[in-house]
Design brief:
Helix content: under 10%
CATH topology of the largest domain: Immunoglobulin-like
Number of helices: 1
Distance between the termini: 31 Å
Order of helices and strands: EEEEEHEEEEEEEEEEEEEEEEEEEEEE
Largest sheet: 11 strands, mixed
């Protein structure tokens, strides 16, 4: 859901953060993942490096990274801008981590509200923790790179930019084997065999064992037989039906009620009141501007907010728009009644009015939409945030 988190990002006030596209067959820029090694339990750092032999005017980058979450996990709080990203005055953005079919995916992007070109070098980095039970071996970090330009083409002055073709190598994390050594010394004596001593030394890669004496014990098995009479729980499927649509159809198997399976698929919620499966979609979005200021002289200030949703949205004139703050309702904010919000591809243009006495601080903007298909109903929630100052 977050794979296209930054591809179509738009700048405001005439500064376009376009996604450029200049193709050089032999000298394409590359956004590569570095490799690292460590022991189970260790944290290692993976860098993202830009190599730009064709001197493209790259103003923003994005890497979609996939890995196996059963052996390693991404530590999102450790994500940092690299020296190249800092030099160009860019910002770092990071998506949530999504897991499906034993694959975890997240997006890391570097871009900014300027037209400065990112130089060669490390643009960003992030830490990964090797899980304690991870066996030794080399594990791959899959990498899908994107790049965007620092301005728009002179012959295509448009709000959406053009992509720059880039390549990128995968990264690897090599898990090393810990080698531990333990030594045990024992003394045995007495009896006809005389006395003596032995020691046992064990490592993870080699085991040497010396045994001085062996004692064998034979146990006589005892068998107990009992007879139990069971009254059947059911005689037919109807005896097991609990009347709920959402937990599936129960069946009677050999006198025992067997639970049914949910009729709804992954990403759907079930309603016993309507006997219907409804698909739910949750999207996040960028909001520009990230800061909305209250008016100084006039009773209210009306402006536009631009939202770039992470994926195709179902926004319509029937969508429900709500503002909230950590304390509850976001007082002094409303949708401008004199303007109509509208959507264009992944982008939503929202007219808002900010009252002079509006509460300052972080504001959460939630948009709920509903779409109907021939098979199901989709409930979609888009959430983003901005700050009132």
């Amino acid at each position: 859901m977050m794979r296209n988190y930054i591809k179509n990002f738009i700048l405001t006030a005439g500064i376009l953060c376009c996604i450029p596209c200049t193709i050089f067959a032999a000298t394409l820029p590359s956004l590569d993942l570095t490799s690292a090694q460590g022991y189970p339990g260790d944290t290692v750092t993976i860098g993202i490096t830009l190599t730009n032999p064709s001197a493209e005017a790259i103003g923003g980058t994005q890497n979609d990274i996939k890995y196996n979450p059963s052996v390693i996990t991404a530590l999102t709080p450790t994500a940092r801008l690299g020296p190249s990203g800092k030099m160009a005055g860019k910002d770092l953005t990071l998506s949530d981590i999504f897991e499906s079919n034993n694959t975890a995916t997240f997006t890391i992007g570097v871009f900014g509200m300027n037209t400065d070109v990112i130089p060669d070098g490390e643009v960003a980095s992030i830490g990964f923790q090797i899980l304690e039970n991870t066996p030794p071996g080399t594990y791959t970090l899959k990498n899908t790179p994107y790049a965007g330009g620092s301005g728009s083409k002179p012959d295509t002055m448009r709000i959406l930019g053009y992509p720059i073709e880039v390549t990128g190598t995968y990264g690897t994390i090599t898990v090393l084997s810990r080698v531990t050594t333990s030594t045990t010394t024992s003394t045995s004596g007495g009896g006809g065999g005389g006395g003596g001593s032995y020691s046992t030394t064990t490592t993870l890669v080699a085991v040497t064992t010396s045994v001085a004496a062996t004692t064998s014990t034979t146990a006589i098995p005892v068998t107990t037989t009992s007879t139990t009479t069971t009254i059947p729980e059911c005689l037919n499927d109807g005896d097991c039906d609990d009347g709920s649509f959402c937990n599936g159809k129960e069946t009677c198997v050999d006198g025992i009620c067997v639970a049914g399976q949910s009729p709804c698929g992954e990403g759907q919620v079930c309603g016993d009141d309507t006997d219907e499966c409804r698909a739910t979609v949750e999207l996040t979005a960028f909001c520009l501007p990230a800061t909305a200021r209250r008016p100084f002289l006039f009773p209210q200030r009306c402006t536009w907010l631009l939202l770039n949703s992470a994926g195709k949205n179902n926004f319509s004139e029937n969508s429900v728009i709500a503002f909230s703050s950590p304390s509850g309702e976001a007082a002094g904010l409303k949708v401008n009644p004199d303007r109509k919000p509208f959507a264009l591809g992944n982008f939503i243009f929202l007219p808002v009015c900010i009252q002079k006495d509006a509460a300052t601080g972080p504001v959460t903007l939630t948009i709920r939409s509903e779409a109907h298909t021939s098979n199901t109903t989709v409930e979609e929630t888009i959430e983003t945030s901005f700050t009132v100052k």
